[in-house]
Amino acid sequence: MSINPLETLGQRIKRLRLEKGMTQSELADDYVTVSMISQIERGKNTPSVELVQHIAKKLQVPLHDLMKNEVEQMETAWKHQLAKVYLLTKQPVEAEPLLLSLREMKELSQIHQIELTMELAECYYLQKQSEDALALLLPLVEELESVTFDDIRILSMLHNTLGNVYYQKQNYTDASYHYRRAHDLTLRFPVFDQLAARISYNVGITYQLHGHHGQSELYLKRAYEFFQNTEHIYEIAATLVAKGITYKNLHEYKLASESLTTAAGIFYAMNLIQESCDTKVTLAAAVIAKENPVAALTQLEECLRFYETAESYADLLLVYSQMALIQLAASQFDAASQHLCQAAAIIERCADDRSPSIGVYFQTHARYHLLVHNYSLAVDFAFKAAAAFASIELLADQVDSLQIACDAYHLNGCDTQAFQTAQQCCEILKRLNGRSDS
């Protein structure tokens, strides 16, 4: 979009409207009056950030482009509100300079300083600059808690954001700690609101990752009960996915199927094809495969085509591994081996070597070699899987992998190594349950 630096915001809106062949009434679209649009175009009125966002959508131009050359002349409150909109619409690159300039202002109140720091940290989090986010958040939460800061809502938001950052770093232990701290604070909220529901969801997810499925169900259920009575459709679907996985882990397959099927449909209706595909993979591998392996493999094949087009290698690796697992359960060893070979061909292309898909791939290979009596290779792959899961603190999956090594040692007559590996599993389980002797 061409930008004239001498053009006012109102003039720019009028020019773009005319270029689109739109009337003022079409631009207003019942959001505001035609008179308001006329006043804005003539420079007689200043639109709110929300109205500018509406106008940008109607004109089909990026909000950032529409607002060029306006930022320097903005009032502080208006500039801050624009930064909030950028964060809400996941445009952190545009939000960052606004927040940095606002933080340089003198005589900011303590609450304003805290708010800007949290928003800048959110900005870094959205850009996957987790260390920069932690550098802002950790000193802030330490300072506020040392002086018994009493705004429980701000403190809960701080801990929740810290949990998000650690989750992004795949440090699930620290993520779980901060999510639980945030949740404890929400218990003092006058009502269970949207923030409390999101925190409850996050706690449920980390309990799920650590294998505490009964506790996971409780937190996810409470989050879902809140979201299902709101218009937050994405949150409803995401919570249904999490509930479906937990139900599967609790062997409640009918409930798992209902949750995952509904979630996949919601994502598809929202045109979120990646999320819909991811949910279908979980549904096929965790639920459908129990009763109809052929149907599960067919659904996974369909998802493969999407991931191939998207060049999503970690997802491809996961699907090939899941297909091999289904075939191993049916003693179709040649077919399973073929899918593992296809997975091996792309594993080097998985840029993120901390992806859980890596661990699933190694674990599936270990199960294959255990079943075809290649016990030495089963041990090798089992330890590779355990190391992959340990690197991202998925301790329950680490134990599952070590159990394969334990079985392989025992079947190969290496009972001493089997006993030592079993002891290692016990120590990890103690850590998982917070009862480590160390």
Automatic annotation (TrEMBL):
Keyword DNA-binding: yes
PROSITE patterns attached to this UniProt entry: HTH_CROC1 (PS50943)
Any one Gene Ontology molecular-function term assigned to this protein's record: DNA-binding transcription factor activity
UniProt xrefs under Pfam families: HTH_3 (PF01381), TPR_12 (PF13424)
GO cellular component: cytosol
Keyword Nucleotide-binding: no
InterPro entries: Cro/C1-type_HTH (IPR001387), Lambda_DNA-bd_dom_sf (IPR010982), TPR-like_helical_dom_sf (IPR011990), TPR_rpt (IPR019734), TransReg_Diox_bact_type (IPR050807)
CDD domains linked to this entry: HTH_XRE (cd00093)
Domain HTH cro/C1-type: 13-66
Keywords for this protein: DNA-binding
Protein name per its UniProtKB record: HTH cro/C1-type domain-containing protein
Species this chain originates from: Tumebacillus algifaecis
